[in-house]
Amino acid sequence: MSTATKPKHIGRNISRIRELRGMKQEALAEAIGLSQQTVSSIETSETVDFEKLVQIAKVLGVTVEAIENFTEESVFNFFNNFYDNSANNGAQGNTTNNHCNFNPLDKVVELYERLVQSEKEKVEYLEKLMNGK
């Protein structure tokens, strides 16, 4: 049995992260100012120029390290843990409900009153300008 690890295939990692994000090659290409064919070529390359990798990471909303260290197992572990934790919180009867600390209607009224006051101030200012001429 071989203990050698496979070299990291940065292009394949970019491809998988892009797919998980629901992004097409054309969209990624446009965002970084390249052609779709160039992005396709990048995704088949084992290594990627660091500056391009930084641009791609920014567009994909991840870090360069996330691209370099991406594995399918880590994605599945993340989603499984997320699902398990969400399910357990509900199943255990944990009553950590999210409640507003304020009444939303009070906020609407407050904003409306501020808007009315602002309009009154505008009217007063315009009347003052008109009387000054």
UniProtKB/TrEMBL annotation:
Residues 14-67 form the HTH cro/C1-type domain. It holds the Pfam family HTH_3. The keyword DNA-binding applies. Keywords: DNA-binding. The keyword Lipid biosynthesis does not apply. This is Helix-turn-helix domain-containing protein. The lineage of its organism: Bacteria, Pseudomonadati, Bacteroidota, Flavobacteriia, Flavobacteriales.
